[in-house]
């Protein structure tokens, strides 16, 4: 795995077991509220009550609702990555495997449209202060794609292709959520952009 994928955490000290458990409760509460009512349903006070943490403590973990929902997206992608590893894609070529993987991830989000909409809206609204959380989402998406490709040490051209594929996947999610694209259109776009993997493959 390339260095830029490995360093998925900032330089902040690692959380203690108790702090990590508290963070997991917060993310779970965020996802539950978003699943039921979307972006507007995620209110920091309700998240604090649902996760049984003080409101001030919640703000120390996540300075705003946007920080929280972007972190929730990274957490959801991490869960997807674990699931995908248990049942790897069956395509013969790297491009086919990546397309299959991203469509499976897309369909997982499709089953939770309110949650998907809340997370994508937060990602869209994120300003520079949310950069660390946005970077986590990008790294997690990159890791999922590289795993599907079966490549441990991608070339710069391949990494560029992976970034474009990740951007297209997120964009396709936005257009589907806004009702401007069908699932069939999303599939075509994903399969089309995944051809970049073949184009950027090192020549033998």
UniProtKB/TrEMBL annotation:
Pfam families: TetR_C_20, TetR_N. Residues 43-62 bind DNA. Residues 20-80 form the HTH tetR-type domain. It comes from the Bacteria. One of its GO terms (molecular function) is transcription cis-regulatory region binding. Keywords: DNA-binding. This is HTH-type transcriptional repressor KstR. It comes from Streptomyces jeddahensis. The lineage of its organism: Bacteria, Bacillati, Actinomycetota, Actinomycetes, Kitasatosporales.
């Amino acid at each position: 795995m390339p260095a830029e994928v490995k360093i998925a955490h900032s330089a902040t000290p690692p959380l203690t077991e108790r702090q990590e458990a508290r963070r997991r409760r917060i993310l779970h509460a965020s996802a539950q509220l978003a699943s039921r009512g979307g972006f507007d349903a995620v209110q920091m006070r309700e998240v604090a009550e649902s996760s049984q943490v003080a409101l001030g403590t919640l703000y120390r973990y996540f300075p705003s609702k946007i920080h929280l929902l972007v972190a929730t997206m990274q957490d959801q992608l991490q869960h997807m990555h674990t699931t995908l590893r248990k049942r790897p894609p069956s395509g013969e070529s790297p491009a086919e495997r990546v397309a299959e993987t991203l469509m499976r991830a897309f369909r997982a989000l499709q089953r939770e449209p309110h949650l998907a909409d809340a997370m994508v809206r937060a990602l869209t609204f994120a300003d520079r202060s949310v950069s660390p959380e946005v970077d986590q989402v990008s790294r997690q998406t990159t890791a999922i794609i590289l795993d599907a490709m079966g490549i441990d040490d991608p070339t710069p051209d391949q990494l560029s292709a992976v970034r474009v594929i990740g951007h297209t996947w997120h964009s396709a999610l936005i257009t589907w959520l806004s009702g401007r694209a069908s699932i069939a259109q999303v599939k075509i776009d994903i399969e089309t952009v995944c051809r970049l993997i073949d184009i950027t493959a090192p020549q033998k």
